[in-house]
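[job 4471] stage=fold_predict status=RUNNING
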Amino acid sequence: MLDAERPPLDLLIAAPRGFCAGVDRAIRIVELTIEKCGAPVYVRHEIVHNKYVVDDLKAKGAVFVESLDEVPDGVPVVFSAHGVPKAVPAKASERGLHFLDATCPLVSKVHRQAERLVKDGHHILFIGHGGHPEVVGTFGQVPDGAMTLVETAEDAASILPPAGRPLAYLSQTTLSVDDTAEIIALLRRRFPAIAAPRSEDICYATSNRQAAVKTIAARCDAMLVIGAPNSSNSVRLVEVASRLGTRAKLIESAKDLDLAWLKGVRTLGLSAGASAPEMLLRELIGRLRGHFTVCEREMSGPEETMTFKLPRSLAPA
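[job 4471] inference complete, writing structure tokens
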């Protein structure tokens, strides 16, 4: 298509976007385990929620399973970035499996808070999405009945926790900042003595990416977010844009883009969830350049310098 035939399209690209420190660390743990131990290396659950990351690691020798029962004896196993219940490493130890824990340190922080609060006699109201691996893993850090799930503001307004025990709240790290603030405000009104976490549970990367989308969404005719449909933080970015009145859509890659959806769009916002590699964004921009005269503008945002240490067994000498 000749340049004169391509309609103009302004791209406002959110910053920060894409990989966070926890995702980068988890992927590196799998890669280094393959380098050190050789293939295959088993991974319990998707290491992060992104098909392209998972497929790349499969090509390098990773085997993804949902249960330790699928892991044969004598091979390494890595636990995903979302965290696992305590019973999982305990079972791996019983079987003599060599395992590495790629749980994001910010998720591990929530795990330790849950343990401390329950040890101190609190009942925890946990804000999160039922069935998400991070929620399952956090509930698995404490005895059954020690936490109650709060998924919505309606739950917060009606939930009846056990009587006679001090309350505390914690949350999943990848939630909507605004929704969680509403739920917390409701819980505090109903239970004024409820204990708060020592620091914000929603992780820096989730907060930063949502703030970046808020910065550009109102200036766009439409917004595309690259990420997997089972990626909580990616889905939240679409919700953030939609609530600001911007037409928004989640796609996994450039090939999923329906060009008809862009009819009439002159300014398009782009972002990517914390488990989506930058190359997916560049591929999308490349496809857009094949149909539009593109003007790219990367927006300013906070620089993320967070890094997390690798497990000692994989750290460079």
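[job 4471] summary: The chain has a mean pLDDT of 95.
[job 4471] exit 0
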